[in-house]
Amino acid sequence: MIIIDKKSIPVFAATGLVLACCGQSVNAAQYSIYGKAEVQIANTDKGTMRYAKEGTHIDAPFSRIGVKGEHGLTDSLKVIFKYEVQVKGFEHDDTSDPFTARNTYLGLAGDFGEIVIGRNDTRFKYSEGKVDNFNETQADIAQLLPGQDRLGDTITYSSKSFAGAQLSLTYAPQDDSSNNEAGFAATLIYGDRGLKNKNYYVAISHVDSLNNINASRLVAAWQQSDLQLGAIYQRSESVDGTKSGNGYVLSASYKLDKWQPKVQFASDDSTIRHSTKGTQWTAGVDYLFDKQTTAYLLYTDLDLQQQTDNSLALGLKYKF
Questions:
Q1: Alpha carbon separation from 230 to 203, 219, 298 (Å, rounded)
Q2: What are the tens digits of pLDDT across the range 219-247?
Q3: Structural domain boundaries of the chain?
Q4: Which of 73, 81, 260, 268 is most exposed by smallest CB count within 10 Å?
Protein backbone atom coordinates (compact mmCIF):
# COMPACT_ATOMS: atom_id res chain seq x y z
CA MET A 1 0.00 0.00 0.00
CA ILE A 2 1.32 3.46 -0.91
CA ILE A 3 0.88 6.16 1.73
CA ILE A 4 0.90 9.80 0.59
CA ASP A 5 1.25 12.64 3.04
CA LYS A 6 -1.61 15.12 2.59
CA LYS A 7 0.91 17.97 2.69
CA SER A 8 2.54 16.52 -0.43
CA ILE A 9 -0.63 16.49 -2.53
CA PRO A 10 -0.19 20.11 -3.80
CA VAL A 11 3.39 19.29 -4.81
CA PHE A 12 2.32 16.22 -6.79
CA ALA A 13 -0.51 18.19 -8.38
CA ALA A 14 1.78 21.04 -9.43
CA THR A 15 4.36 18.60 -10.80
CA GLY A 16 1.70 16.80 -12.80
CA LEU A 17 0.43 20.07 -14.24
CA VAL A 18 3.92 21.13 -15.34
CA LEU A 19 4.56 17.76 -16.98
CA ALA A 20 1.19 17.90 -18.72
CA CYS A 21 1.88 21.39 -20.06
CA CYS A 22 5.35 20.39 -21.26
CA GLY A 23 3.92 17.32 -22.94
CA GLN A 24 1.36 19.38 -24.83
CA SER A 25 3.86 21.95 -26.07
CA VAL A 26 6.98 19.88 -26.70
CA ASN A 27 6.39 19.79 -30.47
CA ALA A 28 5.77 23.53 -30.74
CA ALA A 29 8.10 25.18 -28.26
CA GLN A 30 11.88 25.21 -28.00
CA TYR A 31 13.17 25.58 -24.48
CA SER A 32 16.22 24.80 -22.37
CA ILE A 33 16.96 24.41 -18.68
CA TYR A 34 20.06 26.19 -17.41
CA GLY A 35 21.63 27.30 -14.18
CA LYS A 36 24.65 27.79 -11.98
CA ALA A 37 25.73 25.72 -8.98
CA GLU A 38 28.35 27.35 -6.80
CA VAL A 39 29.89 26.70 -3.41
CA GLN A 40 32.20 29.10 -1.58
CA ILE A 41 34.11 29.02 1.68
CA ALA A 42 34.76 32.59 2.82
CA ASN A 43 36.30 34.26 5.83
CA THR A 44 35.13 37.85 6.27
CA ASP A 45 36.49 40.24 8.88
CA LYS A 46 33.49 42.34 9.95
CA GLY A 47 30.57 41.56 7.62
CA THR A 48 30.23 45.20 6.57
CA MET A 49 30.27 44.41 2.86
CA ARG A 50 27.24 43.04 1.08
CA TYR A 51 26.97 39.32 0.20
CA ALA A 52 29.38 38.29 3.01
CA LYS A 53 28.72 37.60 6.68
CA GLU A 54 31.25 38.04 9.48
CA GLY A 55 33.39 35.02 10.24
CA THR A 56 33.91 31.82 8.25
CA HIS A 57 30.91 30.56 6.28
CA ILE A 58 30.02 28.12 3.53
CA ASP A 59 27.73 29.77 0.99
CA ALA A 60 26.20 29.15 -2.43
CA PRO A 61 26.45 32.66 -3.89
CA PHE A 62 23.74 33.36 -6.46
CA SER A 63 23.25 29.69 -7.38
CA ARG A 64 20.23 29.45 -9.64
CA ILE A 65 18.13 27.45 -12.05
CA GLY A 66 15.93 28.63 -14.90
CA VAL A 67 14.08 27.73 -18.04
CA LYS A 68 14.03 29.87 -21.18
CA GLY A 69 12.63 29.35 -24.61
CA GLU A 70 10.58 30.50 -27.56
CA HIS A 71 7.52 29.52 -29.53
CA GLY A 72 7.04 30.53 -33.17
CA LEU A 73 3.79 32.27 -34.04
CA THR A 74 4.54 33.25 -37.64
CA ASP A 75 7.61 33.26 -39.87
CA SER A 76 8.64 36.60 -38.35
CA LEU A 77 7.11 36.60 -34.86
CA LYS A 78 7.65 34.42 -31.81
CA VAL A 79 6.87 34.31 -28.09
CA ILE A 80 9.92 34.36 -25.80
CA PHE A 81 10.06 33.64 -22.09
CA LYS A 82 12.38 33.17 -19.14
CA TYR A 83 11.65 31.97 -15.60
CA GLU A 84 14.65 32.03 -13.28
CA VAL A 85 15.04 31.66 -9.51
CA GLN A 86 17.93 31.87 -7.09
CA VAL A 87 18.33 28.65 -5.11
CA LYS A 88 19.02 29.27 -1.42
CA GLY A 89 18.20 25.83 -0.02
CA PHE A 90 21.81 24.66 -0.16
CA GLU A 91 23.08 27.12 2.43
CA HIS A 92 20.04 28.01 4.56
CA ASP A 93 18.89 25.92 7.50
CA ASP A 94 15.39 27.34 7.04
CA THR A 95 14.25 25.65 3.82
CA SER A 96 10.69 26.97 3.97
CA ASP A 97 11.68 29.69 1.48
CA PRO A 98 14.47 28.18 -0.65
CA PHE A 99 13.95 30.39 -3.74
CA THR A 100 14.01 34.09 -4.62
CA ALA A 101 12.95 35.68 -7.90
CA ARG A 102 15.44 36.55 -10.60
CA ASN A 103 14.77 37.49 -14.24
CA THR A 104 11.25 36.29 -15.06
CA TYR A 105 9.41 37.61 -18.10
CA LEU A 106 7.26 36.95 -21.16
CA GLY A 107 7.31 38.81 -24.46
CA LEU A 108 7.53 38.90 -28.23
CA ALA A 109 10.45 38.93 -30.68
CA GLY A 110 10.50 39.72 -34.37
CA ASP A 111 11.98 41.98 -37.02
CA PHE A 112 11.45 44.92 -34.64
CA GLY A 113 13.72 43.35 -31.98
CA GLU A 114 12.19 42.06 -28.77
CA ILE A 115 9.98 43.38 -26.01
CA VAL A 116 9.41 41.59 -22.69
CA ILE A 117 7.35 42.33 -19.58
CA GLY A 118 8.20 41.20 -16.05
CA ARG A 119 11.22 41.14 -13.73
CA ASN A 120 14.48 41.92 -15.50
CA ASP A 121 17.88 43.55 -15.12
CA THR A 122 17.53 47.21 -15.96
CA ARG A 123 19.34 48.12 -19.17
CA PHE A 124 21.56 50.33 -17.00
CA LYS A 125 22.76 47.27 -15.07
CA TYR A 126 22.98 45.30 -18.33
CA SER A 127 25.38 47.90 -19.74
CA GLU A 128 28.22 46.71 -17.46
CA GLY A 129 28.99 43.93 -19.94
CA LYS A 130 31.95 41.81 -18.84
CA VAL A 131 33.84 44.60 -17.07
CA ASP A 132 33.09 43.22 -13.60
CA ASN A 133 35.77 40.56 -13.04
CA PHE A 134 34.19 39.49 -9.74
CA ASN A 135 30.52 39.50 -10.64
CA GLU A 136 28.22 37.85 -8.09
CA THR A 137 30.81 37.76 -5.33
CA GLN A 138 31.53 40.02 -2.34
CA ALA A 139 33.66 42.08 -4.76
CA ASP A 140 30.79 42.72 -7.21
CA ILE A 141 30.70 46.32 -8.45
CA ALA A 142 27.24 46.60 -6.85
CA GLN A 143 29.14 46.80 -3.56
CA LEU A 144 29.75 50.47 -4.36
CA LEU A 145 28.08 51.55 -7.60
CA PRO A 146 24.35 52.37 -7.43
CA GLY A 147 22.04 51.35 -10.27
CA GLN A 148 22.88 47.63 -10.39
CA ASP A 149 19.20 46.78 -10.11
CA ARG A 150 16.88 43.96 -11.12
CA LEU A 151 13.32 45.28 -11.01
CA GLY A 152 9.88 43.74 -11.34
CA ASP A 153 6.91 45.18 -13.24
CA THR A 154 9.08 46.57 -16.03
CA ILE A 155 8.95 46.66 -19.82
CA THR A 156 12.24 45.98 -21.63
CA TYR A 157 12.85 46.65 -25.30
CA SER A 158 15.97 45.60 -27.22
CA SER A 159 16.49 46.46 -30.88
CA LYS A 160 18.29 44.30 -33.38
CA SER A 161 21.92 45.14 -34.07
CA PHE A 162 22.53 47.68 -36.83
CA ALA A 163 26.14 48.03 -38.02
CA GLY A 164 27.34 46.79 -34.64
CA ALA A 165 25.09 49.10 -32.59
CA GLN A 166 22.08 48.17 -30.46
CA LEU A 167 19.60 50.24 -28.45
CA SER A 168 17.79 48.88 -25.39
CA LEU A 169 15.31 50.45 -22.97
CA THR A 170 13.73 49.74 -19.58
CA TYR A 171 10.46 51.39 -18.52
CA ALA A 172 8.70 51.19 -15.14
CA PRO A 173 5.20 52.72 -14.87
CA GLN A 174 4.51 55.19 -12.07
CA ASP A 175 2.22 52.80 -10.20
CA ASP A 176 4.99 50.20 -9.99
CA SER A 177 7.86 52.56 -9.16
CA SER A 178 9.45 52.65 -5.70
CA ASN A 179 9.55 56.48 -5.78
CA ASN A 180 6.02 56.92 -7.17
CA GLU A 181 7.01 58.23 -10.57
CA ALA A 182 7.64 56.60 -13.91
CA GLY A 183 11.25 55.73 -14.59
CA PHE A 184 13.35 54.52 -17.50
CA ALA A 185 16.83 53.40 -18.50
CA ALA A 186 18.36 53.65 -21.97
CA THR A 187 21.55 52.00 -23.23
CA LEU A 188 23.35 52.28 -26.55
CA ILE A 189 25.84 49.47 -27.20
CA TYR A 190 28.53 49.27 -29.86
CA GLY A 191 30.62 46.14 -30.34
CA ASP A 192 30.25 42.78 -28.61
CA ARG A 193 29.06 42.75 -24.99
CA GLY A 194 30.46 39.25 -24.47
CA LEU A 195 33.76 39.93 -26.29
CA LYS A 196 33.34 36.71 -28.29
CA ASN A 197 32.74 37.85 -31.88
CA LYS A 198 34.50 41.20 -31.58
CA ASN A 199 37.33 42.24 -29.27
CA TYR A 200 35.79 45.54 -28.13
CA TYR A 201 32.69 46.78 -26.33
CA VAL A 202 31.48 50.33 -25.68
CA ALA A 203 28.23 51.39 -24.01
CA ILE A 204 26.60 54.66 -23.01
CA SER A 205 23.76 54.32 -20.52
CA HIS A 206 21.41 56.56 -18.54
CA VAL A 207 18.84 55.79 -15.85
CA ASP A 208 16.15 58.21 -14.72
CA SER A 209 14.02 57.72 -11.58
CA LEU A 210 14.47 53.96 -11.40
CA ASN A 211 14.89 52.74 -7.82
CA ASN A 212 15.38 56.31 -6.59
CA ILE A 213 18.44 57.26 -8.66
CA ASN A 214 19.41 59.25 -11.73
CA ALA A 215 22.72 58.24 -13.25
CA SER A 216 24.79 58.11 -16.43
CA ARG A 217 27.69 55.81 -17.24
CA LEU A 218 30.27 55.11 -19.91
CA VAL A 219 31.55 51.54 -20.23
CA ALA A 220 34.43 50.18 -22.31
CA ALA A 221 36.08 46.77 -22.59
CA TRP A 222 38.85 45.50 -24.86
CA GLN A 223 40.39 42.09 -25.38
CA GLN A 224 43.57 41.23 -27.20
CA SER A 225 44.64 37.60 -27.21
CA ASP A 226 44.63 36.55 -23.53
CA LEU A 227 44.53 40.08 -22.06
CA GLN A 228 41.24 41.76 -21.15
CA LEU A 229 40.83 45.32 -19.86
CA GLY A 230 37.66 47.09 -18.73
CA ALA A 231 36.54 50.43 -17.31
CA ILE A 232 33.37 52.17 -16.10
CA TYR A 233 32.82 55.84 -15.30
CA GLN A 234 29.52 56.74 -13.63
CA ARG A 235 27.87 59.94 -12.41
CA SER A 236 25.08 59.27 -9.90
CA GLU A 237 22.49 61.38 -8.07
CA SER A 238 19.63 60.49 -5.75
CA VAL A 239 16.17 61.43 -7.08
CA ASP A 240 15.70 64.00 -4.29
CA GLY A 241 19.05 65.61 -5.18
CA THR A 242 20.55 65.27 -1.70
CA LYS A 243 23.34 62.88 -2.74
CA SER A 244 25.57 62.85 -5.80
CA GLY A 245 29.03 61.86 -6.92
CA ASN A 246 31.27 59.90 -9.26
CA GLY A 247 32.07 56.22 -9.50
CA TYR A 248 34.86 54.32 -11.26
CA VAL A 249 35.75 50.71 -12.03
CA LEU A 250 39.00 49.47 -13.57
CA SER A 251 39.56 45.77 -14.25
CA ALA A 252 42.15 43.53 -15.90
CA SER A 253 42.64 39.81 -16.44
CA TYR A 254 45.09 37.59 -18.28
CA LYS A 255 44.86 33.90 -19.27
CA LEU A 256 47.88 31.68 -18.68
CA ASP A 257 46.83 28.29 -20.02
CA LYS A 258 44.11 27.23 -17.53
CA TRP A 259 44.97 29.94 -15.00
CA GLN A 260 43.45 33.43 -15.14
CA PRO A 261 44.77 36.00 -12.63
CA LYS A 262 42.67 39.15 -12.37
CA VAL A 263 42.51 42.44 -10.47
CA GLN A 264 39.90 45.15 -9.99
CA PHE A 265 39.54 48.58 -8.42
CA ALA A 266 36.20 50.28 -7.69
CA SER A 267 35.43 53.66 -6.15
CA ASP A 268 32.32 55.76 -5.51
CA ASP A 269 31.80 59.02 -3.62
CA SER A 270 28.07 59.56 -4.24
CA THR A 271 27.21 58.14 -0.74
CA ILE A 272 24.10 56.53 -2.27
CA ARG A 273 25.10 52.92 -1.65
CA HIS A 274 26.92 53.66 1.63
CA SER A 275 26.85 56.64 4.00
CA THR A 276 30.45 57.58 3.09
CA LYS A 277 32.54 57.34 -0.04
CA GLY A 278 34.24 54.02 -0.55
CA THR A 279 36.97 52.20 -2.43
CA GLN A 280 37.54 48.50 -3.02
CA TRP A 281 40.58 46.58 -4.22
CA THR A 282 40.25 42.95 -5.30
CA ALA A 283 42.72 40.37 -6.58
CA GLY A 284 42.06 36.78 -7.50
CA VAL A 285 42.84 33.85 -9.74
CA ASP A 286 40.57 31.42 -11.58
CA TYR A 287 41.44 27.89 -12.63
CA LEU A 288 39.41 26.99 -15.73
CA PHE A 289 38.82 23.25 -15.81
CA ASP A 290 36.62 23.74 -18.91
CA LYS A 291 33.99 26.19 -20.24
CA GLN A 292 31.54 25.15 -17.55
CA THR A 293 33.67 24.56 -14.44
CA THR A 294 35.81 27.12 -12.62
CA ALA A 295 37.63 27.08 -9.29
CA TYR A 296 38.63 30.46 -7.86
CA LEU A 297 40.44 32.22 -5.05
CA LEU A 298 39.88 35.92 -4.29
CA TYR A 299 40.78 38.52 -1.71
CA THR A 300 38.92 41.82 -1.47
CA ASP A 301 39.38 44.88 0.74
CA LEU A 302 36.61 47.47 1.22
CA ASP A 303 37.40 50.91 2.70
CA LEU A 304 34.44 53.11 3.73
CA GLN A 305 36.49 55.76 5.57
CA GLN A 306 34.89 55.18 8.97
CA GLN A 307 35.01 51.39 8.67
CA THR A 308 36.81 48.75 6.64
CA ASP A 309 36.24 45.13 5.79
CA ASN A 310 38.03 42.34 3.94
CA SER A 311 37.16 38.86 2.75
CA LEU A 312 39.11 35.82 1.53
CA ALA A 313 37.14 33.26 -0.48
CA LEU A 314 37.75 29.90 -2.14
CA GLY A 315 35.03 28.67 -4.48
CA LEU A 316 33.92 26.21 -7.15
CA LYS A 317 31.42 27.18 -9.85
CA TYR A 318 29.62 24.98 -12.39
CA LYS A 319 27.35 26.33 -15.14
CA PHE A 320 24.92 24.15 -17.03
A1: 12, 8, 18
A2: 999 999 999 999 999 999 999 999 999 99
A3: 30-319
A4: 73
